[in-house]
Write a structure and sequence with these properties.
The chain is α+β, with helices and mostly antiparallel strands. Helices cover 32% and strands 43% of the residues. The chain has one domain: Nuclear Transport Factor 2, Chain: A (Roll).
Length: 132
């Protein structure tokens, strides 16, 4: 499997809510850089993040466009997040099943056949407007 195929499979697992599939593709030392938050280091922190996402959000990504640089180790992906806000999180608006559609992007790094970095970016203020 090429690194780009690995990245595409990661997002197919995301859309299928196959968290174990996603986890199988990331390094034990994954660096997860969420939007507007401190980086999470290590697979245990990434597992906690996926559990929280599963509890609070239901999301599907569409219109995905993948980019890679020459070495084939660094990737970017643009997509549209089609979501439902299921359960509120501290400091965010109250959740009551609001739907949202929001453009986002991610930057990923692959080393030795595993994803070692995922950095996600979206407009948090726009998301808050959509669910408020």
């Amino acid at each position: 499997m090429t690194n780009q195929e690995l990245i595409q499979l990661y997002y197919r697992h995301f859309n299928a809510q196959n968290w174990n599939g996603m986890l199988s593709l990331v390094s034990d030392n994954i660096r997860h850089e969420p939007n507007q938050s401190e980086p999470r280091l290590g697979i245990e922190k990434f597992k906690e993040f996926l559990k929280k996402m599963d509890e609070c959000y239901e999301e599907k990504l569409t219109d995905m466009i993948f980019y890679s640089e020459v070495s084939g180790q660094k990737f970017a992906c643009e997509f549209i997040v089609n979501g439902k806000y299921k359960k509120g999180e501290g400091g965010l608006p109250t959740a009551h099943g609001q739907s949202y559609v929001l453009p986002a992007s991610a930057f990923l790094t692959v080393e030795n056949g595993k994803i070692t970095r995922v950095a996600t970016n979206y407009n948090l203020e726009k998301w808050i407007d959509l669910v408020s």
